[in-house]
Amino acid sequence: MKKVYKTMIFTLMLCLSMSLLKAQEVPVPPKVPEKPEIPAPPAPPKFDEQAWKDWGENFKKSFDEKKWKEWGEKAGKSFEGFDQQFEGMNLASADFDKKMEKLNAKLKDLKIPELPAMPEIPAMPPMPPIPEINIPSEAFINNGWTLGAPEDAVEKTKKLTKTYPADANDQLAISNSYGKITVNTWDKNEIKVDVEIKAYAESDDDAQKLLDGVSIDNSKQGNLLKFITNFGRTNRNNSWLSTSFWRGGDSKQKVEVYYTVYMPSKNTLNLKTNYTNIVLPDFNGAVGINMNYGDLNTGKLDGLIYKISSNYSKMKIEYINNAEVFCNYGDLEVNKAKNLKVSCNYTHVNISSLSEDNSIKMNYGDFQLNSLDKNFKTLNLTSNYLQSKFDFAGSPNFNFDISTSNSSFKYDDSKVIITGKTPSDEDKGWSSSKNYKGYYGKSSSANINIKSNYGGVKFN
After folding, report:
1. For 176-215, b where at least 16 C-beta lie within 10 A, e where not — what string?
2. pLDDT beyond 60 at 181
3. pLDDT value at residue 123
4. 0.85 exceeded by pTM
5. Closest C-alpha among 343, 342, 379 to residue 459
6. How far apart are CA 449 and CA 435, in angstroms?
7. Contact, 314 vs 297, CB < 8 A?
8. How many other C-beta atoms are found inside a 10 Å radius of the C-beta of residue 372?
9. pLDDT computed for residue 182 by the predictor
10. Mean pLDDT over residues 412-440, rounded?
11. Which end of the chain has the smaller Cβ count within 10 Å, N or C?
12. CA-to-CA distance for 394 and 157, rounded, in angstroms?
């Protein structure tokens, strides 16, 4: 029993020591991701080591080791011979209950001395506050890239203007990095492209070298009109990329390429960009966009078909019809959509209104739909690890078929009628998979079909 007593005392002292050491630890601010580069958080305020040392000494003085030692000896004596009283008791035998009654009776007679009073623990010194770490979400979407001149940098510019005649079959294709593309429409049967290249550096010579490293290839072959931004090599690391992408700090080397386009609204437009913002007006022609790191802002896109692919980008679209949208790591905001197909990963999607037939596939992120147009027909939503929220105030009636696996379905009982549920509420046992059938408002020919795995669906 002395071993038991020693183990108890050692465990108690170890817990007190660990608590004291744990209290002295200063929380370390979380490590900021290396990419994109973001200024490190400020260091915590100075830690008052002497105050914590004094606290430990005061606690040590108030702890009466002798009293705890005496209690351990008394507790050990109370257990002496206790094991001999139960020799021959086979608790696994058939008369288990009777033998347990005897055991409980003997346990009642066992007297364990009361614990001595715990010493009063001195008040702990205040911990230093943890500094706030503010990381802008835009830094992760656009990798820290923004338009604009570095502070106190020398600027050099050059311009290019090209105009080509165009008929209804002509297509415009632009490939660009580090800049902005602004498209305007007009009634002329021609396509005009203005290009302005800006180079920034610490000296005139370096800025000129950067400017000389940029060229614009343009040509027209058949119905295809192409503009391609080319980046040459420089003397620094013999690499254009190492000097053209300015990330702040002491470096002021940066290049930006601005395209301003004037074209008929019904011609086809194809854009391929990196680190480029895109602005489109109301447009009736077919549009294809492949963009990485940048912002897309559009008016009403009402052409034959649109294909948009984006990575690490923010997209804001006023209206889109007959579109396929692929996006990874970003934001997609659509005011009105008709016949929309979406496939996104790690993306926030917000749609104000849907019309006709639509299909959405999403993994990781969140999805919100605010209303349904009077011409709405179908929505098929397949999701994994996604929170889906639907606000249907003022929307037309529709039927729904919702299948969940390790997901929840929440709804307003006053607006949603459940006509079928599998497994039903009467079925016994628990199931991770459920199916709900019913309608919103009244039964209708319009349908919303949802398959949700590891997430949640909510009808407001």
Report:
1. bbbbbbbbebeeeeebbbebbbbbbbeeeebbebbbebbe
2. yes
3. 59
4. no
5. 379
6. 11
7. no
8. 23
9. 98
10. 88
11. C
12. 53
Domain assignments of the chain as residue spans, ordered by start: 2-109, 150-278, 282-460
Look up residue 143 and give its two tokens.
């990798």
**What does the block give as tokens for 397?**
């009636």
Tokens representing 346 are 């790690």
3-state secondary structure the chain: CHHHHHHHHHHHHHHHHHHHHHHHCCCCCCCCCCCCCCCCCCCCCCCCHHHHHHHHHHHHHHCCHHHHHHHHHHHHHHCCCCCHHHCCCCCCCCCHHHHHHHHHHHHHHCCCCCCCCCCCCCCCCCCCCCCCCCCCHHHHHCCCCCCCCCCCCEEEEEEEEEEEECCCCCEEEEEEEEEEEEEEECCCCEEEEEEEEEEEECCHHHHHHHHHCEEEEEEEECCEEEEEEEECCCCCCCCCHHHHCCCCCCCCCEEEEEEEEEECCCCEEEEEEEEEEEEECCECCCEEEEEEEEEEEEEEECCCCEEEEEEEEEEEEEEEEEEEEEEEEEEEEEEEEEEEEEEEEEEEEEEEEEEEEEEEEEEEEEEEECCEEEEEEEEEEEEEEEEEEECCCCCCCEEEEEEEEEEEEECCCCCEEEEEEECCCCCCCCCCEEEEEEEECCCCCCEEEEEEEEEEEEEC
Contact between 312 and 330 under an 8 Å Cβ cutoff? The reply is yes
Tokens of 374: 């009077």
Give residue for tokens 């606290």.
55
Residue (of 182, 147, 423, 457) closest to 293 by Cα position: 147
238 pLDDT higher than 70 = no
Q: 């009402």: which residue's tokens?
A: 302
